[in-house]
Amino acid sequence: MSIATSGLHHVTAIAGDPRRNADFYLRTLGLRMVKTTVNFDDPGTYHLYYGDESGRPGTLMTFFPFHGAPPGKQGNGQATATAFSVPEHSLGWWHRRLSEAGVEVDRVGQRPGEDALTFRDPDGLTLSLVAHPQPDPRAPWDNGLVPPEHGIRGLHSVTLSVDGEDATAGMLTGMGLSPVEQQDNRFRFAAGDGGPGTYVDVLVHPRGERGLVAAGTVHHVAWRAPDEATQAAWRSELVDNGVSVTSVLDRQYFRSVYFREPGGTLLEIATDEPGFTADEPLLELGRALKLPPWLEPSREQIEAALPSLDLPSENNPRRSAS
What we know:
Elements: E1 8-15, H1 18-28, E2 32-39, E3 42-51, E4 60-65, E5 78-86, H2 91-100, E6 109-111, E7 114-120, E8 126-131, E9 154-162, H3 165-174, E10 178-183, E11 186-190, E12 199-204, E13 218-225, H4 228-240, E14 249-250, E15 255-260, E16 266-271, H5 299-305, H6 317-321
Parallel strand pairs: 1-4, 5-8, 9-12, 13-16
Antiparallel strand pairs: 1-13, 2-3, 3-4, 5-9, 6-7, 7-8, 10-11, 11-12, 14-15, 15-16
């Protein structure tokens, strides 16, 4: 393909209790709620977006929290791990913080050129904090809950579990990613010049069980396109190559198309524009429930069906300063 992504846009996962989900990602991990909205296909369910101060592409982790959702099963055909980037000296601090919060943390693991701390969120979603020696220029969300010198900078990478690497590798290289290293059955690819926020690891389990998407699993992985024109050209190339791709969908804060890579994981191409300040000011991001125009007539019923989230005051600078 002639179109190449610059890196990860966001990762979307399934959760259970929305309040428990928000408490963990806001208070424990120190991310910001940059948008509180609903699943456009199921408006009785939240769609929660966490990221840096403005929710820049590459910093975003989002959730569909279905209260009472059954647990999923991680396995082949899905993204089985999501990693965030932290400063190289911060893993000891994070180990203490997570342990004090009652989170079971694996020992620091060695990967080629980097260290990783692996744990699970309250629904069992596998997460890692990766200290990469290459400096990450992205600024953390400075909310007073996590010191900025240790704060999460954004996404580092995702891991796709597959039966075999060849077909998945072919699609990734067609999307402009390049193979950069291999460790046993783990193959790493990078977008652009590489670095945190550009990586995808392909983990090969030839006889592994298939995963089941439900609570505690990733729903899809989104890659960046700078604008709608680039996305449209990219979609056309995918269609020309025989890939089944959705029409362009309006997600209010970006435009999306979806398709599956040959190993089974659902992928998305999401535009960088227009961003999360399209319908509320930067200082108020995430505070109020935002609905697309076609759902506004049902706002009263939607709000009545959704539980309150109890956002920390630190999520909105104006509120915490008052």
